């Protein structure tokens, strides 16, 4: 695996993963939606590491732009993409009571439809599994879908976002079935990693402290999970929650002090 496409790679976790993949020897397409300057900076950093890199724009809410993204990446890097990280995401609060059709469409298009289209594009590149020394097939490509630990710990908050991520989890499993052995498909479910735009520092610190491990995670933890998935040739259809155990939270009012 030598060529990667990371969506939403201009900032935050996407940036960290793009740089990590370059350190692992990948040439990288740095996709961005609005963060052109940041994406160009990431591409420049990757080139400084001795790898090829290009920043490509595509609006994940525009089907035509998403459909053209992987072919453009192949052209830019001079060969098939062997690692796709579906990281670009829209994350906006709503509930069953407040959700709108517009919010539904934004979350479904960005978090589910765009990864679906890019997964289809990966499947049509003609990647073929090779046999290892034991005569068993080794996948020629890897897709990693960025989910959210909340798919393991459902709440009524962030309703349409959560539904879209649940759909992406279903896509992870069914595409792992349908694209084997040529491609492996896995997922990472981050917990409290980087402070959200709507959070104060105090709120973010409290969220991290409330996990089972009493701590949040770092971008390096996310990249460590990505590295495992790169190396684990026998793993597909799996979700790794990198969240300090947040999805295991059990000390809710109905049980605390009751047992």
TrEMBL record:
Q: Which InterPro entries match?
A: NAD(P)-bd_dom_sf, SDR_fam
Q: Classify the source by domain of life.
A: Bacteria
Task: Quote the SUPFAM superfamilies the UniProt record gives.
Answer: NAD(P)-binding Rossmann-fold domains (SSF51735)
* UniProt KW keywords: Oxidoreductase
Q: Name one Pfam family in it.
A: adh_short_C2
Q: Give a GO molecular function annotation for the protein.
A: oxidoreductase activity
The family assignment reads: Belongs to the short-chain dehydrogenases/reductases (SDR) family.
Task: State the name under which the record lists this protein.
Answer: NAD(P)-dependent dehydrogenase, short-chain alcohol dehydrogenase family
Give the species.
Answer: Shimia haliotis
